[in-house]
Amino acid sequence: MKPLLHLAFAFAVAGALSACGGKTPPAPVSPPETGSNGEAGSAAPLPSRNFLNVSRFPMNRLISGGVAKDGIPALTDPDFVRAGSAYATYLLDEDLVLGVYLDGVAKAYPHNIGWHHEIVNDVASDRALVVTLCPLTGTGMVFDGQGEGNGRLELGVSGLLFNNNLVMYDRRFEDTLYPQMTHIGIRGYGTEQELTLMPVVETTWGNWKRIHPGTLIVSSGSTGMYRPERYSTYPYTGYREPASAPMFPLFPEPDDNPIVHDYPPKEIVLGVRFGNVAKAYPFSQMGDDRSVINDRVADQNVLVVYDAAARMALPFRRDLGNLTLNFEKVPSTDRRFDFLMRDLETGTTWNLLGQALAGELRGNQLYQIPAHNAFWFAWATFWQDTAVYRP
């Protein structure tokens, strides 16, 4: 057997969960199987090699993360401050944030907040959204919170995990569960309903401030739960090391999923998915500097922009009207960005947010594909048929 699951979990379980829950929890336990046809509790890998088919979802693979429902307290409508505030000093420039920009409003949701709360229910520019971070799978994802006829969507932390991934519950219908990475309801009123994934910019705090100098950031004093200095401390000591193991066992086991050994477990990848078709862009494969990648995933023409220093990888559609554009990297004339792009078809210059700055297509905006980063082991386990970018 390869060493992925032979590495010790104990140090991480005790330290990380006690940091989130306040006390060292009991060992995780599996809830009972559900369903009378044997499919919901099936222990066999799914034929589609992903977990999108709710009728065959392996409910018996949900486990307790060691805390009760809401034992990790989600935030709802926290206070925000400007970057220069004393309540923003918990964050270093190299720390990661999930950045959202809507109708002229820029907001940053730091990983440091997500380590301790995992979910932020918020409103940006009058639009409800839900910002989620699972520290165990490295997945920061933003969902549309507008709701459809049932009021604003608000999610909470269920206390359950699936393949190490956060399982969220819907506060409107508390029996509804959503694994974060598939974001399809697997139980209750919202069964088979899919949350709407929104684009996000995951990057360093220093880079986000450079791109959006007027950004707001979650205040360390807004939660009323922890002292501000707590948000400067990573509670999962050693867990982000590339070769370190996942905290809990995987389904399917690594020996039944050979691709999980292709990269170190905690290698960061940008994951792009259209339905059942998934592709991973490992940061290590995109170079140690800057890359502009013209690609095709499923039937979509895709552009991936990668800035290693900013720890940022963003996917866009390369189609603009009837044009399919191909891009190359060019030196930057904008101090907010380390480099710019130029399309070969019209010679237009674009920034790394997909905005056309100069040339024939000036003023246009490329569509940013809703996607997210993840640890490799998580992406490869959820999407076992994933393609992988290799230059």
Sheet having the most strands: 5 strands, mixed
Strand content: 25-35%
User: Reading side by side through the largest sheet, how are the strands ordered?
Assistant: 2-6-7-8-12
Low-confidence spans: pLDDT under 50, at least 5 residues?
1-46
Subunit organisation of the chains? single chain
Content-based structural category:
mainly beta
- Tell me the number of strands: 27
Let me know the average pLDDT: 89
What is the overall silhouette?
A: globular
Count of discrete structural domains: 2
Rg, rounded, reads: 21 Å
Through-space gap between termini: 29 Å
Contiguous helical run count: 4
Helix content: under 10%
What is this structure, in a nutshell?
This protein is mostly beta strands and 391 residues long.
3D structure, described in words:
- Helices cover 8% and strands 32% of the residues.
- With 391 residues, it is mainly beta.
- The chain has two domains: 75-233, no CATH class; 259-373 and 383-388.
- The strands form seven sheets. A five-stranded mixed β-sheet has the order 2-6-7-8-12.
- A hairpin with a 5-residue loop joins strand 24 (349-350) and strand 25 (356-358).
- The two termini are 29 Å apart.
Question: How would you describe this structure in keywords?
Answer:
391 residues, mainly beta, five-stranded mixed β-sheet, 4 helices, 8% helix, disordered N terminus
